[in-house]
Amino acid sequence: MHLAVLWYSEYVKRTFGVGAQFAKYMKSVNQRLKSCAAIAAAVLILGASLLPLFEATTYALPAFDGADTGPVNNYAELTSIADKATFWTSYKAALTDDCILKHQLSGADISSGNWFLSGGSTRVGHHVEPDDGKAGCNNENGWFSDMMAKAGYANLNEAAAIILNSDGSRPNDWQARLKSAIDSRAFQGSSPGKSTDDVTYYILFKNFTAERACNAAPTPAVSSDPNKVPIQVYDPETKTVSAQPYSYPEDKDITIGRGTPLSSDGRYRCREIAAALGKAQYANAAKTTAAAGTSFESTGANTAGEDPSLQCGTLRNILNWIICPVIKLINAAVGGIDNLINSLLSVDQEKIFNRTTSTGLGYYN
User: How confident is the model over 306-358, as pLDDT tens digits?
Assistant: First the structure.
């Protein structure tokens, strides 16, 4: 840039005969440009040297003294068949090659459940993702963090301390570590190969009747097609199983999720689902489980909620020293304002309607 200025000043001087005053002015402009260029170069060098401080590679996993608490059986403790079904197909989806763990996870990635490379999707079934039965690898709608919470990792930093390398990078055996961490908490160390019959019924029936899946609906008359047999339906209200005819698109191929005895790749045709639901074993299993005290639909007790804490002690970032206190101050201020508003909305009835006080006497008189 300064060379261009020199050329231009010389050109103007020779062409228009501008005197020494203009040449002096242009020379000062050129010197200022040189100074700006030097400052810009210094800023770029400084920025490049500071950049690693903000990158994920500086993240260090927190140490958890009780990260591995030993085998427990959280899956069996889930309070509904729906929760077990949601967990099951999400668990199977997380262990496939559909979603690949990021090479390096930051603290924000870990706590948000955004563990996998974005752009891909995995088959979880319409009972998890009603739209198309597929969940985005970037923890779309919280499918991965919800599954991990149901397994026993409400704090995903705890799972990361077991699965990832100490610097937050991806180990070569990450799939084996992920499976081992989940199995230890959910299945006392060893998961079953296929879903149980009650969970299978929930998965099949929900995908069979889902609007964007088979969209099957009860029909008053039995189909004349001998292949369209009535399906066995469990009624959670009456807790009974009965045979009911349904209408459905036979050849439609839908995503039900992996891990059922019917499908290894997570897809199945509607007529094949109907044939499986025609067997009483699945609906009867749901009835038996419900009779033992497990609800059919989710009660919400096992839904993973967002952790409201900032976890400033586990997120290693150079700006945490100022960001965390500011956020905490704002949070405290909002809480104070909320308390003030609630106090203004509350009415002291004793003070207003008490005849022994001047305020109460004023009201009645």
Answer: 344 444 544 445 555 666 677 767 867 776 776 677 666 665 655 666 666 66
CB atoms within 10 A of CB 121: 18
Amino acid at 212: R
The closest alpha carbon to 84, from 289, 306, 307, 305, belongs to 289
Q: Please check whether residue 88 is in contact with residue 259, taking contact to mean a CB–CB distance below 8 angstroms.
A: yes
Would you say the C-alpha torsion 50, 52, 56, 59 has a positive or negative sign? negative
Residues ≥6 apart with Cβ < 8 Å to 262? 200, 204, 256, 268, 272, 273, 276
Neighbouring residues of 276: CB distance < 8 A, sequence distance ≥ 6? 200, 204, 262, 282
| Model confidence pTM above 0.85 | no
Residue 53 CB contacts under 8 Å (≥ 6 apart), including other chains: 318
Q: Are 162 and 314 in contact (CB under 8 A)?
A: no
As a whole number, mean pLDDT of residues 101-123 equals 93
Distance CA 133, CA 167 (A): 34
- Please, what is the Cα angle at 126 between 121 and 227, to 5 degrees? 120
Q: How many CB atoms lie within 10 A of CB 274?
A: 22
Radius of gyration of the CA atoms of the chain, in A: 32
Distance CA 204, CA 254 (A): 11
Residue with tokens 């956020």: 327
Ordered alpha helix ranges (H), the chain? 2-16, 20-54, 74-77, 81-94, 107-112, 143-151, 156-163, 174-186, 197-209, 270-277, 280-291, 320-345, 349-353, 358-364
Q: Give the helix ranges, DSSP H, for 129-223.
A: 143-151, 156-163, 174-186, 197-209
Beta bridge partners of 246: 218
The token duo for 135 is 């969940």
Six-digit token pair at 319?
A: 């700006």
pLDDT tens digits, one per residue of 53-110 = 444 434 455 444 444 444 557 898 999 999 999 999 999 999 999 999 999 999 999 9
Sign of the four-CA dihedral 67, 71, 77, 83: positive
Name the amino acid, one letter, at 132. D
